[in-house]
Design goal:
The chain has 14 helices and 31 strands. With about 575 residues, the protein is α+β, with helices and mostly antiparallel strands. A hairpin with a 2-residue loop joins strand 14 and strand 15. The chain binds one RNA strand of 77 nucleotides through helix 12 and helix 13.
RNA sequence: CGGAACGUGGCGCAGCCCGGUAGCGCACUUGCUUGGGGUGCAAGGGGUCGCGGGUUCAAAUCCCGCCGUUCCGACCA
């Protein structure tokens, strides 16, 4: 491509609305423009990189037997009502003129197709995938393309007759994902993840570490344990049971509200205190008990309760329900509440918690004697430096960006849409599904996050929009024009993707700055300076290392440089 | 959805407090100049000051409403 004809609007100044490096550089290097919040127009340079990422994905999906589909973005609203996903908050965007919605993902359409055409166990297994635009009603798009309302996703769906089959399909995807992200040159890691409202029995995320990431992950630098904070565990021990268990006593605690205040007021360790956290689950009051200032993890709470919506209780209602305000609520004698507790409290005694009477707490609570609760679950949020569950080394908590997510879905959608097949015994069984997503824009943005410098993007070979940036330093110099144009043609003929800066009205300095900003892995500079010695210059973008080579050796040297 | 900020030529911003001719840098056009790290000089073109209403002789500026965008939080199949 000759730059004199190309549409690559680079920007000298940093766009004010962009905070992340990848976002700034994608705008500055002329990759994209924002149309409206969370919606971007991808310009030719970006689209070339995206096509490369998509082709890598396609190859690896095909390699595990995937079949590519093109599925409708417009779905009948009723389809989503059937699976109960129509009213999930912030999920679906709908159109005004008809009862159609914009598909945020395609489990429904896949299950619909399977319901029609998968009849027998002999039709299974299947791997169906698509690389398409999806739409979500994101309340707050942010970080450039990292969280948009419209985005391209590779989604695949597996259909299996058995749970063992699902395991195999899932493992095949995990391996394919490793290959995809490795080929894209991303420094990624995997974590165990929550399957959340998707339902299902297992899930893993593929992440890159980034301070601007929206996910929080727990990592063990020693043994490699890695999990999303939503499910991460640590080896923090349960409370020890005291040998002596005393009768309950009421303690006057005027104006003491928080766990910190209570510990200070009573001069006891926070582990002697049981914190009450109140919620409503499907509208019914729920008390969750935590040790001291352990932070309750809502994802874990939701998982522990199974289906249903977990919400805070409005403070006005709280007083009516318990007879006390937030700081004085406790499990003993509390009526109308379901009670569950963090597993660290199992068998604990000698504990202090709210008395359900303002300004009073109860001491000597024995969880086996005084509290009637539904069960103990892991509800707490892991914190940095806690011991690893598998090797006891200190854990690290980091932010991360999710590149891909794989789920063992099970039969949730096949049951809802009646996608069944007849097994060997002639019995109808729901198809067992898996679903596996990769964000295409995220691959690009994450690569840029991990590969840039003060001058601009540093594309790797796999994703670079062009292999080579050829610069004619001065188009008023006849020989420069002749040699550079000749090189351009020759390189194109042997299949090198060349971006040729043949602009006549731009100074050499400007061209160099633009080339560094756009970031092709190799730059070739043809200019008066080198031509005096019958040489051209090859520069590696990443290291800045320059080599002068004689004109007659140029094509060979360039080819070699591009290859490694 | 809670909190905050911003909206002025294509981009980045000043002007607003204290109402009175709309300004700067970059980009763009023309001419000359320069030609290896965003050349220099000169002359130009381009703005309903987000939208609507109000106050006023007079509104980019003050007041009210709306819209948009961004940031923090909530949320994030």
């Amino acid at each position: 491509m000759r730059l004199s004809y190309a549409f690559i609007p680079t920007l000298k100044e940093i766009p004010a609305d962009a905070t992340m490096k990848s976002h700034q550089l994608m705008l500055r290097a002329g990759l994209m423009r924002q149309l409206t919040a969370g919606v971007y127009a991808f310009l030719p340079l970006a689209y070339r990189a995206m096509l490369k990422a998509m082709e890598i994905i396609r190859e690896e999906m095909n390699a595990i037997g995937g079949q590519e589909f093109h599925l409708p973005a417009l779905n009948p609203e009723s389809l989503w009502v059937t699976t109960g996903r129509r009213n999930i908050p912030n999920l679906i965007l709908s159109i005004k003129e008809r009862d159609l919605v914009l598909a945020p993902t395609h489990e429904e359409v896949i299950a619909w197709l399977a319901a029609y055409h998968i009849q027998s166990y002999k039709d299974l297994p299947q791997i169906w995938y698509q690389i398409q635009t999806k739409f979500r009603n994101e309340p707050r798009p942010r970080s450039g393309v990292l969280r948009g309302r419209q985005f391209i996703m590779k989604d695949s769906y597996t259909l299996d007759a058995t749970w063992e089959g699902l395991d195999a399909s899932y493992q095949a995807h995990a391996e394919a994902y490793r290959k995809i992200f490795r080929r894209c040159g991303l420094d990624f890691f995997e974590v165990g993840a929550s399957s959340g409202a998707m339902g299902g029995t297992g899930s893993q995320e593929f992440m890159i570490e980034s301070p601007s990431g929206e996910d929080t992950v727990v990592l063990c630098p020693k043994c490699g344990y890695a999990a999303n904070l939503e499910i991460a565990e640590s080896a923090l021990p349960p409370l020890e049971r005291k040998s002596e268990t005393k009768p309950l006593e009421e303690i006057h605690t005027p104006n003491v509200r928080t766990i910190d205040e209570l510990a200070r007021f009573l001069k006891v360790d926070q582990t002697r205190l049981a914190k009450s956290v109140v919620y409503q689950h499907d509208g019914k009051p729920l008390l969750a008990l935590m040790v001291g200032n352990d932070e309750l993890n809502e994802a874990k709470l939701t998982a522990a309760l199974g289906a249903g919506e977990v919400k805070p209780i409005p403070t006005e209602e709280l007083l009516a329900l318990t007879g006390a305000d937030g700081g004085s609520i406790g499990p003993v004698g509390l009526k109308n509440f379901r009670i569950i507790a963090d597993r660290r409290l199992k068998n604990a005694n000698g504990m202090i918690s709210g008395a359900n009477r303002n300004d009073y707490h109860l001491g000597n609570i024995d969880f086996t004697r005084d509290v009637t609760l539904e069960g103990f679950h892991d509800l707490r949020t892991v914190e940095s430096e806690e011991p690893c569950v598998s090797c006891n080394s200190p854990l690290k908590v980091s932010n991360a960006i999710e590149l891909g997510h794989i789920f063992k879905l099970g039969t949730k959608y096949s049951e809802a849409l009646d996608a069944t097949f007849l097994d060997e015994n002639g019995k109808a069984q729901p198809v067992i599904m898996g679903s596996y997503g990769i964000g295409v824009e995220r691959i690009i943005a994450c690569h840029i996050e991990q590969s840039h410098d003060e001058h601009g993007i540093v594309w790797n070979k796999a994703l670079a929009p062009y292999d080579l940036h050829l610069i004619a330093a001065n188009m008023n110099h006849e020989e420069t024009v002749k040699i550079s144009a000749g090189l351009y043609e020759e390189l194109r003929e042997i299949g090198v993707e060349v971006l040729f800066d043949d602009r006549t009205n731009v100074s050499p300095g400007f061209k160099f700055k633009d080339a560094d900003l756009m970031g092709m892995p190799v730059q070739v500079i043809v200019g008066e300076r080198g031509l005096k010695e019958r040489k051209i210059e090859i520069k590696r973008r990443r290291s800045g290392e320059r080599t002068l080579v004689p004109i007659q050796d140029a094509v060979g040297a360039i080819r070699k440089m591009i290859a490694d």
